[in-house]
Amino acid sequence: MKSSVVNIESVSNNAFGTGFVIHSDTTGIFVLTCQHVLDDVKTPVVENVLAKVIAKGNFIDMAVLYVPNLHLEAMPLQTSSCDQLDVDVIGFSAFNKTLTQKKHINATLYEEAIELHSKKEKAYCSIHKIKAQDGFNFDRGNSGSPVICKHTSHVIAMISNKEGSDIAYAIDIEHLKRIWKKVPQQLFQDPEKNIPKPLKQVSTQQENTETLKARVLNAKFSFSKKKSIIIAIVLLSLGSYFLYSHYQKEHNKTQAPSKLNNKPIEKPKPPIPLEPKE
């Protein structure tokens, strides 16, 4: 995203400002910046390429540049309000007398919009006051910086001018349509519109039928499960019974006396005396 924020420099002086890519094609890029930035730089240059002004506002401080032979990713735009007031700002400012720096600024939008009315024509535009958070500040050169919604990462406004170091004013991005008559409409596809539509809901009768089928299937499954458990318990009990009976039989065989042992013990018969021979 940072690469889509560019430094707008001058051929003839030391003036500079910020811009950001809003559209691109096969031949170049389209950059949005402030009209007063172009008033200062006179002849704008982006990435050492001479830029051409293709749209600008008289009362609205916006301008569109076309830069040929450059290919950078466009930043998505959002005309609907951001669901949170904390935003990101990326812009260029002076680092020293000869160098500029691109830096990130944490800021907070004021919820209430301000209407600016022209004294010369019947026109007005809405802007928002924006305050830099602790540790951050707005500097010269930040004009034209994108104001990015943290939730969607889409650009919702552009820094126009500042008041001191911690207060600035941002123009709502929707005013781009007013200064660029040939703006591609696909640039304003808000993220909410890209959310896929929910699936078509079934009728109540169909839902009830499906619910009833599910309950019947669950009941059958539950009954089958209980039946299987009961059969398993019975088989286990029978198996245990037969094993126990077999064990008892074998045990009795080893412990019971044999029939031979049950016979009464016969006393030995006395020897028959021999008769003497005559």
From TrEMBL:
Cell inner membrane among keywords: no
Parts forming coiled coils: none
Residues spanning the membrane: 229-247
Species name: uncultured Sulfurovum sp
Keyword field contains Membrane: yes
SUPFAM superfamilies: Trypsin-like serine proteases
Top-level taxon in the UniProt lineage: Bacteria
UniProt KW keywords: Membrane, Transmembrane, Transmembrane helix
Name of the protein: Serine protease
Compositionally biased tracts (Basic and acidic residues): 264-278
InterPro entries xrefs: Peptidase_S1_PA
Region named Disordered: 253-278
